[in-house]
Amino acid sequence: MAALALLAGAEGRRIAVLGDMLELGTDGAAHHAGLAAAIEAAKADLVFLNGTEMQALWGRPAGVAARRLGADLCRTCPKLAAALKLGDTVLVKGSLGSKMAVIVDALKARGA
């Protein structure tokens, strides 16, 4: 994923917040599982996963701390906010239908 490649060049901790990519159709699980290599290449320090398709990534890659966000993004925004530190770079990515804009709006509201 090109967005994860951009994260690789970031300074400080690299945090990926990933939601389901709903447009992938019947091969969605395989494509989601395939993100493991891109996450490793991005040297992500922390990965937040949201949605049923992202379950294919749970536990991979082994060297990355991962947390499940769950279905209710409004409840999990505080968990993400609590994990952030000054100097972190945060990538938020997912289909419009996975409602990741809730995360972006919450980060903007706190001045991140």
Structural summary, described in words:
- The chain has a four-stranded parallel beta sheet, sandwiched between helices.
- It has five helices and four strands; from the N terminus they run αβααββαβα.
- It starts with a helix and ends with a helix.
- The protein is globular, with a radius of gyration of 13 Å.
- Helix content is 36%, strand content 18%.
- The relative contact order is 0.24.
- It has helices at 2-8, 28-33, 35-41, 73-83, 101-109; strands at residues 14-19, 46-50, 65-68, 89-93.
- It is α/β, with parallel strands linked by helices.
Short description:
The protein is built from 5 helices and 4 strands; from the N terminus they run αβααββαβα.
Number of helices: 5
Query: Using only CA atoms, what is the Rg?
Result: 13 Å
Strand residue percentage = 15-25%
Mean of all residue-level pLDDT scores: 80
Stretches where pLDDT is under 50 for at least 5 consecutive residues are none
Number of strands: 4
Helix content: 25-40%
Q: Give the CA-based shape.
A: globular
**Through-space gap between termini:** 24 Å
How does the major sheet shape up? 4 strands, parallel
Order of helices and strands: HEHHEEHEH
- Give the oligomer, counting copies of the same chain as homo and different chains as hetero: single chain
Please state the structural category.
Answer: alpha/beta
- Spatially, the strands of the biggest sheet line up as 3-2-1-4
